[in-house]
Amino acid sequence: MQKLCFKKILWLGSLFAAAFFVCTGCNKRPAVIEHPVFDVWNSTTLEIAQIELNDSATVLHIEAYYRAGSWIRIDEASYLTPSNDHTRKFPVVSAEGIELSKEILIPDSGKVAFKLYFPAIPADVKKVDFYESDCEQCFKIWGIALTDNAKTAILPAPKTKPLAALPTIAYSNTPAKISGRLAGYTPDIFAAKGIKLSFNDILSGENKDITLTLADDGSFTGEIPVHFPTIVQTADAEFLVVPGQETKLTVDLCKQSRWKSRIRADKQPSDSNYLYVDNGLAANKIPTLFGEAFGKIPNDITPEDFSKFISEQLSLKLEEVQQISNPVEKTLAAGYIKTQAAYALLMYKSVNRNAIGIQLPMSYYAPLKDWISDISIVSDVYSPFLKAFVSTLAPATTDIKEKFDAFKAAATPIIGEQNLLFDLALTQLYVAKQQTTPFDDAALAEIQTAFAHAPQYAEWLTAQNEHIKQQLASIASLSKPVPDVADDKVLDAIIANYKGKRVMVDYWATWCGPCRQAMETIKPVKAEYADSDVVFVYLTSPSSKAVLWAEMIPNIHGEHYWLSTSQWKYICDKFAIRGIPTYQIYNKEGKLTKQYTGYPGNDEIKNILESVR
Fold first, then answer.
1. Strand order from edge to edge, sheet including 176-182
2. Whole-angstrom distance, CA of residue 504 vs CA of residue 537
């Protein structure tokens, strides 16, 4: 359960750039500028609808767009500065429609309008930058034109090489290479200095992240540890990488900023093509099956009608795929869309919850024969599909061989002999068991036998096993010992360790995205209380995979405890914790004073911490 109370989310995650843009507008500034042109921003939340320029003030009419129920805050340290001279600053004087440095909730409309008043900007200034203070995460908009008819320069489209042949769909131990640049990158406007890439590891079925360092000129290079052709994602772009091959990526963030704006009149249809991929497939050019129509599916739809609906949607999207000129990309795109259809077919019981527990006939899965093949692996939903397919057809047993044999026997009449799919399914089954209990010599020998026909998977699992053993061993050194008391006494004993201090307890899990987002949001608060009597305590359970937990907590500063399943359940039942992240704040006497489910925001946390003694 999550209440969205994060201050802001950067629209490009870790893709960052400022730009080299040219204003070619009039020399004389108008009194009012509607929907002013700007060069680049670090968030799509704030739009400047209008600027008033006069001898006494500069007024920015702001429209803020964000999720209803979340909140934004405009800092009282906000200012404007000439784009070509940051030594001159014009601090915000007042606001109308919002109180500076105070949180404001976004209404059901998802939009808030307000005005910010600044001193008059000298007539010689033609472009300004907006800073919502100098904090790393604050809103920033660069290159706001103070003239009519201003334009932004667009990066000439780089030359790219189309895919000449289908990538080999086979296991490889050679990582993919990636290089590229972010046009005109300027570190000053963006918080992070790296580009974050995410991908699904087909062997483990786990989502993984890597961050590549950005050079001062916005260029980057690195390797991605994939074993098959894989879709890699940034915050809002996707592209294919292939083991042993280099993919070159160029992002025109001027076009992207313009395309993302809701109100700019100078937006061009071609702005949607702001990502240039050399020797790879840009997945954002592939139509997605999961469009608006999926939101209108009746809750009581029958299996037959659901299957028919998916087939019809697939046919429509495959017609769009036919417009792709490159035959190789067309084949990959078709496989991508068909895999989405296959995954959707397995989601029937999520759509019609009245059907949970009902056994669907095997004939329901017949379309999978035409939708799933080795080429399906290029889709970013291939791994989720595979997990759902195994879960649907395999019995609920902890014996891997029994589970896999039953799955293969049931799946073969549906999809035929697909060795790659079956090998990956078996690998993922071993990985799932391996996460909590590393394999002994007997289990490793069993794996060698199971993969006698494909020893590369046995070798990978053996190496993974050693890594897991090391990570599990590190838990003792990374976490605090859980008090050896009854389940109903564990939390009291943990809190007692910090008597005389204020304690904030964070209930979280490695798989919980909102938990991790909140951990980023709260960092300034933790830094502020670093040398105080406030302690940040983190509690998790075995639902967090030990390997990922051990990798994450060195970057989550605080006191960490790994509770048993029974301890976690008792505490959640006692305090009616129905979702995470959940937070509790205790005073110096160890008394619970406040509990939240969903992060309430930095200001709320600070107010409560200051109020408890």
1. 219-224, 176-182, 246-251, 275-278
2. 6
Q: How far apart are CA 465 and CA 224, in angstroms?
A: 21
3-state secondary structure 406-440: HHHHHHHHHHCCCHHHHHHHHHHHHHHHHCCCCCC
What long-range pairs does 546-549 form, CB within 8 A, spacing at least 24? 546/435, 546/436, 546/468, 546/471, 546/472, 546/475, 547/435, 547/467, 547/468, 547/471, 547/472, 548/206, 548/510, 549/475, 549/510
Q: Lay out the sheet containing 90-91: strands in order across.
A: 40-41, 140-145, 127-131, 79-82, 90-91
3-class SS string, 499-540: CCCEEEEEECCCCCHHHHHHHHHCHHHHHHCCCCCEEEEEEE
Task: Decide: helix, strand or coil at residue 357.
Answer: coil
SS3 string, 314-335, reads: HHHHHHHHCCCCCHHHHHHHHH
Element (H, E) at 54: none
The pTM of the whole model exceeds 0.85: no
Look-up: residue for tokens 């036998």? Answer: 449
Q: How far is CA 8 from CA 64, 258, 303, 489, in A?
A: 11, 20, 41, 38
Structure-block tokens of residue 184: 């005109």
Give per-residue burial for 289-312: e unless 16+ CB within 10 Å, then b. beeeeeeeeeeebebeebbebbee
Give the residue carrying structure tokens 């036919």.
322
pLDDT (tens digit per residue) in 34-76: 999 999 898 899 999 999 999 999 999 999 999 888 888 999 9
Counting beta carbons within 10 angstroms of the beta carbon of residue 28, is it exposed (0 to 12), middle (13 to 18) or buried (19 or more)?
exposed
Q: Is 399 helix (H, G, I), strand (E, B) or coil?
A: coil
Q: 181: which strand partners?
A: 219, 250
Q: Count of residues for the chain?
A: 613
Per-residue tokens: 381: 């939903």
**18 three-state secondary structure:** coil
Lowest mean pLDDT among 104-118, 218-232, 267-281, 445-459: 267-281
Whether the pLDDT of residue 11 is over 50: the answer is no
What's the N-to-C CA distance of the chain in angstroms?
29
Amino acid at 577: I
Q: Give the range among 342-346, 465-469, 489-493 with minimum mean pLDDT.
A: 465-469
Of 199, 198, 203, which is closest to residue 171 (Cα–Cα)?
203
Question: Helix 327-345 and helix 382-393: axis angle, to 10°?
Answer: 30
Strand partners, 141: 41, 130
What residues have CB less than 8 Å from 487, skipping those under 6 apart? 564, 566, 567, 570
Question: pLDDT (tens digit, 9 = 90+) per residue, 161-179?
Answer: 878 889 999 999 999 999 9
Q: Give the span between the Cα atoms of 563 and 491, in whole angstroms.
A: 10
Measure the CA–CA gap between 599 and 555, rounded to whole angstroms: 19
Q: Residue 546: CB partners within 8 Å, gap ≥ 6?
A: 435, 436, 468, 471, 472, 475
Integer CA distances (angstroms), 294 to 313, 349, 355, in order:
9, 14, 18
Q: Tokens 């397995």 label which residue? A: 346
